[in-house]
Fold this protein.
Amino acid sequence: MKRIKKKFDELSSNDSKALITYIVAGDPDLDTTFNIMNCMVEEGADIIEIGIPFSDPMAEGISIQKGHERALLNKTSIKDALDLVSKFRKSNKSTPIVFMGYMNTFESMGVKKFCKAAASQGVDGLLIVDMPPEESTEFSTEANNNQIDVIRLIAPTTDISRVKEICDLSSGYIYYISVKGITGSNDLDSKDVKQKVKLLSSETDLPIAIGFGIKDSHSASSVKDLADGIVAGSVFVDLIGEGGDTITNIANKTKELFLAIK
C-alpha cells in the first residue's frame, strides 16, 4: 500500500485529521532542513511537503518566495532534495513525503528519469503547481508507473466540471485552496470553506486537505472538522526566515497545530 493512502487510512481509523507541513528544501540549508523534518515528525506532522526551490514561484506569497530565494542562494538543486529524502528514509520509513514545485524544475531531469529517481529515494507524491490536467499525461503516466501519487490543487473559483476532471486525474489527496490568492493569505472563511469542501467531497473519495491561511491554533481548529487534514506552510517558512532557535520554534508551532486538530 502506498504510504499516503496508508497514513490517511490510519488517521481515519482513529478519527483523526492529518497535519501536513511544508518547508523549502535547503532553507536555510540542507542540514537544517533535515533536522526540521525530523523535528516536525516528532511533534506530530503526518505528511511533509518539500518545496523544490525555483526562481519564479508564482503561486507563492512573499514568505515562501523568500524561502525559495534563501535555498537558491545555497544552490540547492532537485538532486539535493532527492538526497535529502534518501537521508531521511534511513531512519523514517513511514512518513509520506511530497515534492511541491514547478514543471520546469522536474522536467530539467527528464520526467521518466526524475520519477524513477524520486521513487527510489522515497518520495511518495508530487504536487506540481503549474501543471494543468491537459499537460500532465507524461507526468501522470510515469508517476503511476513508479507508484507516486499526483496530488492536485483545487481553488474556490474552480467550476464543478473542472473539479470533476481534476479529481479524476488525482491520487493521494486533494489540496483544497481555502482562500483566493497566493500562499500566506489571511482571509480564511470557514463557512465558505465548508460549503466548497462539501461540494468537492461529492466528486471524489480521495482525502481532502485544506491549505492557505492556516497559521495558528485558531485557524487550524476553525477548519479541522471540514476535511481530512490541514496544510500549513508559510508560518514555518516565516519562522525559518526569522532565525534564532529555529528548531525550537518549529517544534512549538508544529505541536500547536497538532494539538489544535487532534
User: Anything to note?
Assistant: The radius of gyration is 17 Å. The chain has a mean pLDDT of 92.
